[in-house]
TrEMBL record:
InterPro entries (UniProt xref): MetI-like, MetI-like_sf
Main location: membrane
Name the UniProt record assigns to this protein: Carbohydrate ABC transporter permease
Similarity-based family: Belongs to the binding-protein-dependent transport system permease family.
Length: 297
């Protein structure tokens, strides 16, 4: 079918606009990458926009050689893995249980869960509750409060309800228990949905700086995003390098060529790249899961 001139023009304009939008999104990352790979003193003169003018890896050597930053990365990685697995598991179990229409007080439970999504007690009561539970200044303050997501539960519930009832009924007639139905029927059919929600959950854990800033005072427990937030508000490079800086790296770099801005850009890039690398592996599941959720929602 031949396209009209107006349709071709519209497609050209649409491609140009989307290309410009992509460039506006990508340029900040390219700029930060160029600054992080450039000598700090040289970058401070200006003129570095797309590619480094004086290439160096010393900024990354300092960032990755700092013990505080390395430990913050370990905390973030552990939090992301444990929090994502625990959150998906608990939320999936609740959604699977509520998918049974014969569950006693099912509507009451759904209404109560919905209320918790629409209304919140506020930050101060939440802080007091965490304190009473003994979660403040512990690693579990990152995990336990976020183990159940109401929004994710409703998405999972809709997806599970979309699975043909004949599959579940035939399995139950063959003697399959609810746990077996969950792990052998529901979970295999829900991979796209779980991948999409798992990606959202993992990104949320990885990017969260709030919990580490307000619920944790022990520096050995702060995640990398909280460290980055502290770094962005720092005014002295010594607050970043501390006493654990790789002295050999500093000797090679010539201290005068290092600036706070170049270190900040290196930390930003080092904290953003790992989670960005996850997207290509989950892309096919992610797109399919979003489409299924839009159709069944």
């Amino acid at each position: 079918m031949r396209q009209k001139a107006g349709e071709k023009l519209f497609q050209v304009v649409l491609v140009v606009l989307l290309s410009l939008l992509c460039l506006t999104v990508l340029y900040p990352f390219v700029y930060m990458l160029a600054i992080s790979l450039n000598e700090g003193a040289d970058a401070a003169k200006g003129g570095v926009y797309l590619i480094p003018r004086t290439f160096t890896l010393i900024n990354y050597e300092i960032v990755l050689g700092n013990e505080v930053i390395r430990h913050a990365y370990l905390v973030t990685i552990a939090r992301t893995i444990v929090g994502t697995v625990a959150g998906l598991s608990v939320t999936l179990l609740v959604a699977f249980g509520l998918s049974y229409k014969g569950l006693p007080m099912r509507r009451t439970i759904l209404g109560y869960i919905l209320i918790t999504m629409l209304f919140s007690g506020g930050l101060v009561p939440f802080y007091i509750q965490l304190n009473n539970l003994g979660l403040l200044n512990t690693f579990w303050v990152y995990i336990l409060p976020g183990m159940f997501s109401v929004w994710n539960m409703f998405v999972m519930l809709k997806f599970i309800q979309g699975i043909p009832e004949a599959l579940i009924e035939s399995a139950e007639l063959d003697g399959a228990s609810p746990p077996r139905v969950l792990w052998q029927i529901v979970v295999p059919l829900s991979k796209p949905m779980l991948a999409a929600l798992g990606l959202f959950t993992a990104v949320g854990h990885w990017n969260d700086w709030f919990a580490g800033a307000f619920f944790v005072s022990d520096q050995s427990l702060i995640p990398v995003q909280t460290f980055l937030q502290q770094l962005l508000s720092a005014s002295d490079i010594s607050a970043v390098l501390g006493s654990n800086t790789n002295q050999e790296a500093l000797a090679r770099s010539q201290m005068q060529n290092i600036t706070l801005m170049s270190i900040k850009m290196a930390v930003v890039m080092a904290s953003a790249l790992p989670i960005l690398c996850v997207y290509p592996f989950l892309q096919k599941y992610f797109v399919k899961g979003v489409l299924v959720g839009s159709v069944k929602g």
